[in-house]
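User: Design a sequence. Structure:
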């Protein structure tokens, strides 16, 4: 597997360069980025909701306590469908949808962590993640403008960070391709 990756090192570098360019473009052209974000969010929310419904269906077959997953699924699908029918000019409405989704999902995760506390260890991690998600959702509901700014900054920072890491990975793979024995900690034979 490593040998195949070292031959394709340039693909990582290309992905990295494109990631950095994308991050910079998001910050330079926030209007276009937000319109695209609306479409991507709609697709992601619907797919996420379908996944949650499927998980709820599996839970219903095995344990019977599936309503949290169904609730997350329905809210996610509703947020995605509403985003499709909400014009790009009303992006603040999308942030409110995202806020409601995050608030409901966070509170539900806290509930699930409480319910399964005797079955797993470290359930507090799930509860803490739910709490953070609920706080973020509440902040988006109270200050939707903050949600827009946070969304743009997070998307741009993620793309930029991914780009830098992908370039570093590609360059490292290139050195492994050029010097496989020395890079793996092995010395070339003197014969």
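Assistant: Done.
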């Amino acid at each position: 597997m490593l040998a195949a990756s070292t031959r394709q090192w340039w693909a990582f570098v290309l992905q990295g360069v494109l990631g950095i360019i994308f991050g910079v473009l998001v910050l330079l052209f926030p209007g276009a980025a937000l319109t695209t974000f609306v479409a991507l969010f709609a697709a992601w929310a619907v797919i996420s909701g379908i996944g949650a419904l499927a998980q709820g269906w599996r839970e219903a077959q095995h344990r019977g306590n599936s309503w949290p997953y169904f609730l997350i699924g329905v809210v996610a699908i509703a947020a995605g469908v509403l985003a499709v029918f909400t014009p790009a000019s009303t992006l603040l409405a999308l942030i409110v949808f995202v806020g409601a989704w995050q608030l409901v999902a966070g509170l539900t995760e806290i509930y699930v962590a409480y319910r399964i506390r005797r079955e797993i260890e470290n359930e507090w991690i799930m509860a803490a993640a739910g709490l953070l998600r609920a706080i973020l959702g509440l902040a988006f509901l109270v200050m939707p403008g903050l949600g827009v700014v946070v969304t743009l900054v997070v998307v741009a920072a993620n793309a930029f960070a991914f780009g830098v890491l992908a370039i570093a990975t590609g360059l490292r793979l290139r050195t492994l391709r050029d010097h496989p024995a020395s890079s793996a900690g092995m010395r070339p034979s003197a014969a």
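The two ends are 28 Å apart (CA to CA). Helices lie at 2-7, 9-28, 30-62, 67-85, 91-115, 123-142, 144-178, 180-183.
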